[in-house]
């Protein structure tokens, strides 16, 4: 019986961690698509799904090399390599259509919130259509959508300038987020 070398054990460990990563990604996919949950770190100020997209490229690549080394065959290592190629092609559209989130930092609010700002300019009458999605933390790193709030605002107004620069104020004991004339309830 042949003993596995340290190098073989290393590659088996890589494959094992890749399988664990696959299970975590399936769980993340279910949370994001079925339950409309955002996975966000306020400490790092980053949407953790964006990091996962890059890991979707790195993990299959490393797994492909590990499988190729262990089995000395291209067939088992081809599957993760194809997954990596698909991940590369999906990366641009995901970033093009993904949202950036802004952490609501204030000691007055009753919970942790993040917001996503969207705007449509060129309405024709010198105003912009502003939309804010508000998410509230339900569990650490997991945010659920609280609401969607929209308003037409003149492009020359202070509210529009505050909105574009991300300057907001928290009013009424942490229950209202305001950009001036555009107020959003924090439930």
TrEMBL record:
It comes from Heyndrickxia camelliae. This is Uncharacterized protein. Keywords: Membrane, Transmembrane, Transmembrane helix. The chain crosses the membrane at residues 12-31, 51-71, 78-97.
């Amino acid at each position: 019986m042949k003993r596995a070398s340290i190098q073989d054990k290393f590659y088996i460990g890589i494959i094992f961690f890749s399988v664990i990563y696959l299970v975590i990604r399936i769980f993340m996919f279910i949370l994001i698509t079925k339950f409309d949950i955002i996975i966000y770190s306020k400490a790092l100020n980053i949407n953790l799904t964006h990091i996962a997209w890059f890991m979707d490229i790195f993990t299959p690549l490393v797994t492909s090399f590990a499988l190729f080394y262990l089995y000395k065959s291209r067939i088992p290592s081809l599957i993760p390599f194809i997954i990596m190629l698909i991940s590369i092609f999906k990366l641009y559209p995901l970033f093009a259509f993904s949202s950036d989130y802004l952490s609501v930092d204030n000691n007055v609010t009753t919970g942790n919130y993040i917001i996503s700002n969207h705007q449509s300019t060129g309405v024709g009458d010198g105003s912009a259509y502003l939309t804010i999605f508000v998410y509230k933390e339900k569990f650490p790193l997991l945010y659920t959508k609280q609401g969607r709030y929209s308003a037409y605002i003149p492009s020359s107004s202070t509210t529009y300038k505050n909105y574009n620069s991300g300057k907001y104020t928290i009013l009424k004991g942490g229950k209202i987020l305001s950009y001036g004339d555009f107020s959003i309830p924090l439930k």
